[in-house]
Amino acid sequence: MSPRLDAPRRTTDIRRFSRAERWVHRTTAALMGMCVVTAACLYVPQLAELVGRRELVVRIHEWAGLALPVPVLAGLASRAFRTDLGFLNRFGSHDRLWLRAAFRRDERAASRPAGKFNAGQKIYAAWIAGATLVMLGTGLLMWFTHLTPLVWRTSATFVHDWLALTIGIVLAGHIGMALADPEARRGMRTGRVSREWAEREHSLWRP
Q1: DSSP per-residue string spanning 137-199
Q2: What is the DSSP letter of 89?
Q3: CB 98, CB 113: distance < 8 Å
């Protein structure tokens, strides 16, 4: 007996992220979240009074910051992770088209061609990686006060504080965009996405 012609087509899932990649993302997110929360407890008076134990909060903040690069470094042992880093590091002509459409607020999928990662994701990944390194460097200057002159520590504190605020805003935007795309969240949670979503949002990706 032949199948009904009007039966809905079954959606096929495809793999987007390996287990190692998901582990890197989750661990990095947990450490980054710990840094942001402890920073807020250190700089917002109302939170500082509510939490108390400033010395403990400082220590958690310092060690979480030091550990931030560890998941990425460990992830380099994964071939899938290294491959995706290569994708994130390449910016092509289709990425310029994607950005142009984003600036024009053109939501049509056809006007936003993307490989496995779109231009916005590539820019975010590069920015957050650079910001993390700057935060780590300035944090070390603030921690080991006896190793550097006062002007260095003062400058490091200024950069660290304002960059932390910027990171908080950018992370809020990143989380907001993730909340608006359940299929992208499923890809990071389970490693798999629907083929229909991949063809619509990442038309140049060939899994």
Answers
A1: HHHHHHH-GGGS-HHHHHHHHHHHHHHHHHHHHHHHHHHHHHHT-HHHHHHHHHSEEEHHHHH
A2: T
A3: yes
| Residue 15 host element (H or E) | strand 13-15
Element holding 126 (H helix, E strand): helix 119-143
Main-chain dihedrals φ then ψ at residue 13, nearest 5 degrees: -85, 150
Mean pLDDT by 10 residues, the chain (207 residues): 44 90 96 93 82 86 94 96 94 94 88 93 95 93 84 91 93 93 94 94 92
pTM for the model stands at: 0.85
Question: In the numeric block, which tokens belong to residue 43?
Answer: 């700089």
Residues 6+ apart with CB under 8 A from 43: 161
End-to-end CA distance of the chain: 34
d(CA 193, CA 163): 34
Residue type, 124: Y
Beta bridge partners of 194: 13
**Count of residues in the chain:** 207
